[in-house]
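Support reply, case 0932

Customer input (verbatim):
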Amino acid sequence: MLEERIARIRQVLAQESQAWGKPPRLIAVTKYSPVEDILPLHALGVTDIGENRVQVIREKLPFLNEKFSVHLIGRLQTNKVKYIIKDVCLIHSLDSMSLAQEIDRQAQKAGRRMPVLVQVNIAREAQKAGIDEAAILPFIQQCAKLPGLDIKGLMAMMPLDAPRDTIETLFGRMRMHFDRCVQEAINQTDIRELSMGMSQDYDLAARAGATMVRVGSALFR
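Our regenerated output:
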């Protein structure tokens, strides 16, 4: 039952994040879920949903409760930015300067500063997007000069088949980079979000200090 699964996930998040004083926000990954399965989330207190594809967001939006906050969590092509710039609350997948420049251009046209997270390829997987961890600060400093961007923090995806101790180490490194970004207090940024952890490892992410976890299959079974 959905209500029981949400309660169980929240209990784990609260327990594992005690050292940080606040559990991470639950982003329900709804990329495989029809609208009729998404709508009940709102009454259960889950108002943040994550979608991977621009086209799917555009198809679902007219049928969603307007109180849902839609996160773009998948890879974003520059030619698709204009289609979601007014509709999503946060882009989790900023991974190149060309994408940053296009988000900036479209955000300024839309009269907003677009909240974004910088995606880090923490495990250096060739098949995954994201910048190298050594480039995090220089990249943020460069992006911070773009007035249409509101840089909120970092995002990472972990290797699906890695041992849990390896995942734990990678989460720890992400938290270290996040803390360093906060301490640097880069002008024109508002670093406060660390999006990491999915259905298979959200407990470890909470323990490592994530502020957001992206959970799909553990919710919608």
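We compared this against your earlier run and they match. Two observations from our side: The chain has a mean pLDDT of 96. The first strand starts at residue 25 and ends at 29. Please reopen the case if you see a mismatch on your end.
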